[in-house]
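User: Continuing from earlier, I have the next pair ready.

Assistant: Great, send them over.

User: Here they are, in order.

Assistant: Folding the first of the pair now:
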Amino acid sequence: MKKYILPLSIFMCFALSLSAQWQETNGIYEGATVASISNSTTVFFSAGTMGLYSCNINDTIWNRLETTQLAKNFRSLAVQGDTVYAANSGYGFYVSYDNGVTFNNISTASLNSRQLLINYIGTDTLLFLATNLTGLKSSSDGGITWNTIAFSGISVKSLAIEDTLIFVSLGTQIHRSFDDGITWQIVRNGINNSLSDNLLILGTNIFHGTSSGISCSTDTGSTWTQRNNGLSDIRVTALQKDGTKIFAGTKSGLFMSQDTGQTWISMNNGLNNLEITTITIAGGKIYCGTLYGSIYISSNNGNSWTKFNDGFTANTCTQLISSNNRLFSVSRFGVYASDDEGDNWYRSDAFGSTDTFYNSLKISTKYPNVYACNENKIAVSNDNGVSWTNGQTPTIFTNMLCTFENDTNVLAGSSDGLISSVDTCQTWTAIYIDSSNPLITTLLRKDSMMLAGTRYYGIYISHDIGQTWSFSGLNGLEIENFDTIGSTIFVYAENSGIYRSIDNGLSWQMITTVGQRTICLKAVGQALFMVSPDNGILLSYDLGNTWTNVSGNLPEASVHAIEFHLGYLYAGTYSSGIWKSNYSLITNLTNGIKTCVSSIFPNPSSENTTITLNKNKDLLVSVIDIRGKTLLSEKYYEANKIDINTAQFASGIYFVNLKYTDFSETKKIIVTH
C-alpha cells in the first residue's frame, strides 16, 4: 500500500503518513483456493490473488506467508523437503528454502503457470511446468531459467510424472514421453475439451479426470476405459492419491476409490455439496480446498469433514455497516456479523446458502431491519440479521444494487430504475425518475430530501421522500456513494473524483481530481474519511480541502470498506481481513497529539460535564455516539470552558470532537444514570 497524500484541486497538502495503530480483528476466515501442496510437516494453500498460506500439520490456524507484495496469483505449487516452489499465473517464480518463512523471486519470466511438478534424474532435480499458451517448460537450476521442451504456443492443461514417464493433456489430446520429455507420442485423441483437466499416476494405472468423468489406462496410455461407477457427479475437478486410495474432487463433493477407480464412494459428510478445487494429504489428514470460500479437513480418511479456516483471511471485504451493537461485513462469500467488536465473526447468510459466490452483494440497515440485495435477489431481516426471509424478486427489474428504508416504504435501486415496496419487499412498484430510466447505484436521505446516484446519468434529488425526482447535476458520471457533514453533501464519482454541495444538491464542486482509485467515503462527526485502494485511508477535517493519510500499520492490501462502530474505526481489506483502530487515537494522531484540553470533569457524569481549555479558542463542538451519529453540534467563540448537558444522553460512551481553526481533537466522555 503506497502511502502519500492525494493532490487536491483546491489545496495541496503534504503530510507524513501517521502511525495510527491498527489491530487485526479475528476474521473473516474464508477464501477461495486454487492450489495446495504439503510436505512431512506443513500444508500450503494458495488463494490465488489473495495470498499464500501455510499450516503446520499439528496446528489449528493458518499463517499468511509474506510472498505476495510482488506475486499476486500463485496458481501452482511444489515442495521438496523444506524447499517450496511457487509459480505465478503471469510473471515470476518464487522459492523458499526455509519451509515458507521467506521467499525469493528468482525469475521474472512470463510463465503463465497451470501446474508445477518435480522429477528426479539421479542426483539432479528437474522442475516441469504446464503453462497457458507457452507449452511445457522445464528448469534444471531450481527455477532460475526455463526452457520450453514441447508444445510451444499451446496450453498444457495438466501433467503427471513417474520416473522418466510423463503424461501431458492438451485438452483434446493426451501425449506420452518415456524419456523425460525429449520425444512424444499421442496416446489419446478426440477428447471433449474441458475446463477441468487432471492427470494422476498410481502404479501402472493412469487416470484422466475431466468434466465428462474419469478414464483409466493400465497399459501406459495405449487404451482407456471409463471408470465412473458410483460417481453421482462426473464433473471432476481434482485428483489425489493416498497409498492405494484415490480421491476425486467434483463440482458437488468428494469421492474415494480403493479399487483403482472400479467403484467410487461418496465422502461428503460435512462438505455440504461443495465444489472441490484442490486436495492435499499430510500427516494422516486430508485437506480439501473449495471454490466458494472454505478449507475442510478430515482426520478419518474422509469419512467426516470440518471447516478449517482459522487464519485463512483470503477474502474481500466489500462493505462494513454498523447496526446498533452489531457490526456487519459483506464479502464475496456472504454476510457476516460480529457482536464483540470484531473478536469473533459468524455467518449471517441472507440467502440461506453457506457456500455461494456473490457478485454484487450489498446490505443496508435501519435497526432492527437489515436488507440484502444481490443481482436479482433481495432478503429481509427484522431482527438485526438473526434470521432472514426472502423478499419477492421483482420480475421486471434486474441487478438489484442498493436498498434504503424510508418511513413507510423500502426503496431499491436496480439496473432498470427505482422501485418501491410498502409490504416488506413482497410487492414492488416502479417510481418514475425520468425518461432515461437510469441505473440506480446508491441512495441517501437527508432530512426530508433524498438523493439517488446513477450510473452515467449523475444525481437526482427528491424533496418528498422519494415520490418525485428532478435532476441535480454531475451528468455523465458514475455515482458510487454519498455522505454528509452538517449541511454539506459529499459524493464520490468513479473515474472522476469527489464532489461536495453546500446548497442541498443545487450545485456541485469538485474537491479531488484523483477519484479513479477512491472506493468510498465515510463521515464521522466533523471527520470525513476517504478510502483508496492505492493510498489506504485518508482523513479530512476541513470538508475535503486537505487530507492526511491515517493508514499507519495497515497491511499491504487494498482497503475496500470503512465503518465507525462502538468507538472504533474498522477497515475491510481486499485480502488481509478486517482491521480496527481506536477512533480517538486516529483523530488525535492527525494533530500530532496536540491538545487544548486541560481537564474534563466530571467524567463519568450523569447531568453535566465541563471541558476546560488551556486558552481561549474559537471552535465547533460535536458530540458523537458510538455508532457515529452526531447528536449535537455547537459553535463557541473565544471560549475556554465548554459545558455539556449529559442528562439528555442515555448511559454509554460518547466522543466529543473539538474542531479549532487550526486543528481538531477528540475526547471520550462516559454518561451514567
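And the other member of the pair:
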Amino acid sequence: MKSLLIEFLHKLMGEETSATKAAHAMGLKSMRYGRWGKNGVVTHTTDDNGKLVPVAKSKKPAAKPSVGKKAVAPAKVSPQAAPQFDKIANMPSYQRGIKSLKPAEKKQAMVFFTDLKAFYNPNTPPAKRKQLALNLIDKFQLSTSANRKKVYLGIFGDNQQARKMLGEGGFAERLLHDLEKATGKTLGGAKGGSNASEVLAAAAKPDLTDKSSATTDSTVADIFATEPLSFLESKFHTLHGPLGPNGKLVGTSGGKNSKLYFQHSVSRNTSLDHTIKALKELEPAISPKVRTSLQHHKKTMQEVAQNYTIPSPEAEKAVGESYAKLFQSIAEHCDNKIAGSLLKQFAEMSLYDTETAAGVECYLPAAGNFPSGDKIKITRQGTKIEKVASVSVKYGLVGGEFGSFGFPGETAQYQKYHPNPDYRNRNNSHPAEQGYSLGVRDDLIDEKTSFDKMFKQSGFAAAISNSDDLYKIMTDCKRKIELLRAKIKPKSFIDMLAHLGPIRKLNESYAKALLKCIDVAKLEELVGFDNAGMILSGPMQAATAMSFAATLNTSAGLTSIEHNHQTIGKDGSYHSATDTGSPDLKLWRLSFRGFDRRGGGLIASYNSNRRNIRRKEKGKKKQTP
C-alpha cells in the first residue's frame, strides 16, 4: 500500500520516482500497482521505500487446499469502496490546478492526497474515518458549491484553478457524499465574507436543466445556421427550453409558445431554490429579508405562470415589477459584494422572463461559456428568421457614469461575431502566449502590410502621424518578449504565470517611447481620456486596442451583439435598458487584464453614456499678490 501511494502521489505531481527512473533505464514497462517487467512477466516491484527491487523466485510449490475442504478466497474490497485514484491525475481540472501551484503549494496538495488515501483505506475503523474526515475539512478548508457538485480546496485561497482541481460531479460529488456520511454533517461554505458571495453566485446561476443540440434538433440547427450564430464553433450550438415527447426543443417561432417557455422557466430553473437554501444557511450574517423577498418573488412568478394570459402587457408588467422589487430588496439588505454576486446572475433571467412574458422569441444558451451572450433574441418576417441578436446582460455600473457595466467582456470573445473569419481570432485572452506575444495575432505585427492595414482600419491615424515609429516600438517589444519566452519554454499560459512580472515591466518600459509618437490630446479626443491612459501604458495595450478598433470599424460596431444594462439608482429604483453596439471606440470602456491568473487580455464594456465623456478640468489656482 505504501509503495503504491508513493507512486500515485509522484504521478499526480507530474514527477518520476527513483523506481520509475530505474525501471525505464532497464527497459522495463509498468504493469501497474508498483509492478514492472517485460513481455508480460513481472520481474521487479516497488518496495515500501519507493525503490525498485527484483521479484524473489519462490522455491516452494504453491500450497494446495486440503481434500474435502474449499479454498478460502481472500476478502475482496468492493470496487465502490474507494475512488479510482489513478484516474484523478488525468482529470483536466486537476492538471490545470496542479500546474498553477508553486512548489510549496504542491507539497500541500501531496499531503491532501496522502490524507485522502488514509480516509479511503478500507481497513480504517468508522471512528477513525470520522476524525480523518473532520481533519480533511478543517486542514484543507473544504467547502462545496451551491449545486453540491464541487468540493473546493480553500487552502489555496484565490487561486481558482487550484481550489477547483477536484472538478465537478464524479469524484468531487463522491467525496462530498463520503465526507458527509463519515462526519454526519453537511459540508458548506464559510459564513459571510468573500466565500458567501461565491456560494450565492453559484447558487443563483441559472440552470434550466432541459436542453437540445443542433446536431440532433432541426429547430436548434436552424437558429445556429443564421448569422452571426453560424460564426460560432459547434460546441456552442445548444439551447435551453421545453422539450417535446421526442426529446427535442419545442419551437416558439414568433413567440407562439411563450406561455410554455415562461412556465418552463418558472418550474425548471432550480436556481431560486438553491439560492433560498443557501441564504437560509448564511443567516443571520445575511438578513432573512433577502430570503423572504426571494420566496415572495418565486410565488409571484408561479401565479403569473398559472393565472395570466401570456403573452400580454399585463404579464410583462407583473414579471418586471416582481424582479424590480427583488433587486431593490437585495440592494438594500446586502453589502455591495454579495448584492453584486446575486444580481449579476438574476439579471439575465430578469430580461429573459420579462421578454418571454411579452411574447418575444428568445432563448438561453446552454453552454456555460457561450461567447459574449447571455440570451439569444430572434426577429422573424413570417416564419423566416430576419435577425438574430446575441444579448449581453450586465448588472451594475462601476467607475461612475462613464465606467463599465457589470463585468466587462473579453474582446477575444466579442470578436467571434465578426462576419470575416480573419477577425475572429485577432485578440487573445492571454497576452505573451505563443502566437500572441503582444496579445494580438503575431502576423499582425510581423507582417508590415498587415500592421499597416490594421492601423488604417483602427482610425488611430488621427492621433498618430507616423505609424512607422509605433511599428518599431511594437516589433522591438515583441522580440524581447519572445526571447523571455524562449528561456521559459512554457507549454501553456499556466507555465507563464511565475514570469509575468518581468514581462509586465518590459511592456511598461516602452510607455515613454509611446508618448513620443502619439498625440495624447488627439488620442483622448478619439477614444476618451481614460481609454487613452490605458492605451499609453505599453505596446500590449496599444496593439490590442488598435486591433479591437479595427474589428469594430469593419463590422459596423459588432451590432449583432446587444448590450442590456441593469442598475439600481441611488433612490433605490431599478433600471433596465438595451443598447446596440457602435464602431466608436470611445463608447467602449477599455481595460487590460493580462498579468494575473485570470487573464482576459483587452476587456471592454459598451456604454453609450460615454458620448459625453470629458476630462474634468482642474480649477485654476488663485494668484497670490
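Worth noting for the second one:
The longest strand covers residues 384-395. The CA atoms of residues 477 and 588 lie 26 Å apart.
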